[in-house]
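# nightly structure sweep
# worker-07 picked up a monomer target from the shared queue
# config: single-sequence mode, recycle default, output format = structure tokens
# input follows
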Amino acid sequence: MRFPRSLPLAALLAAVTLPLAAQDTPTERDAARDVIQKLGVLQRTVDVAGWTTRLAAPDAARDRVAARAKALMDSELLAMSDDITRHPEIGFKEERSVKILTDWLTAHDFDVTLGSGGFATAFTARSRKATGGPQLGIVVEYDALRGTKGDFHGDQHSAQGPVGLAAAVAMAEWLVVTKTPGTVIVVGAPAEEMMPPPAKTVMHTQGVFNGLDIVVRSHSSIATTRAAPGFGSCCLNIDGVKFTFSGAPAHQMTPWDGRNALTAVRHLFDNIDALRGTFRPEARIQGIIVEGGKAPNVVPDRAVADFYIRYPDAVYLAQMRQMIDAAAQAAALATGTKVKIETYGSMRDGISLGTLNEAAFAHVKRYGGGKVLETAGKPQGWEETGSVSRDIPGVGISGWTSNGGFHTYEMEADALGPVGHAGFVVDAQAMTALLYDFASKPAFRAAVKQEFEGLKLLYSEYQGALGQAYTLPVVKEP
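# output follows
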């Protein structure tokens, strides 16, 4: 069914529609059935399938811009990627990597501002010969993982900068030569692996992303994939929670004179393990003890546990938090200690667009992306924080770059080998091609905007529907 373009968006979203497979869990799909149906009509109204077909057609001018990105990768930027891979720096300590990236951007006609959003290793770079027009954002990351054998690039963030730089310069040059309105802005975001809170969330609240009309980024992948349209996160909705227990010190020969904070933390882990059978199966709870005392002969008067509490949606996550916080308070009561519960960061669902994801997927395949998974994955915003992708339309380029699993030494090795190199070049070409489409085709920009506005309207309705789905059991007095 096609609707006239002149029909108001609210009327389109209220129309009777056909279902669209989307979202993570059966509960989400059932509770938000009406919202998912409206998602389907929105995709047809903005003509996602038609745009995908049109953008998949040959375009010699676009291929020339993508070829420039490939030439930059082959001549300079693959070597830069290898160099950053061999010199890993963890979040907020990426000084060397940032200097390499920003020096290169400065040499290629970009004005660089360091310290974006208040982070020393964040930056913003704007093409010097900007001509107004659409603001084309490219996010790059460069932090390494913390590993037991030393820091390492087991998620290939070392390549995200070079890939983004290739697309940035290729597009900036094309805009100038063709006198096409448009401005390229590169945003360097630190410490992706040390969230929550994600640095991008803080940068967003500080206005770093203001004015961008689109954001693109790339990421390592074990296959060529794309997300379905809708609402979600790559890594579930997360609360980062620190539980600090306070007791009283004493000699371990007379422990009754103290109160053992470490015992309270151990009780917390036991209580959470007991709750796992109560939570829905999609829940994930991961914790470590970051402080457990200073010496075996002193009763620990302070102990700290750090947890990531995850669920596919924020509504049920709130119920989990109530029970887990109660488990911490119970551990304190049982041990005569006190507990401080601190939510230090969170991640929430983002918005995923069919227009951008399908076009990017077509471009990755066009330029040779391997291990193609034709079925779309779960919906997820273009970045992990959720908040940014709910405010700015964007897409993550996911071409095959590794045979190893995420966060592994095998993935780091592939960053230096033929699988990674070939994939990074494909990512750069696809990113450039998508930015070319967005900059050169006003009708495509309008379709992206229409879909994004519709999805934002549906997001609130989706949250409301989930709020009715998770009823609490009635617990009677004994």
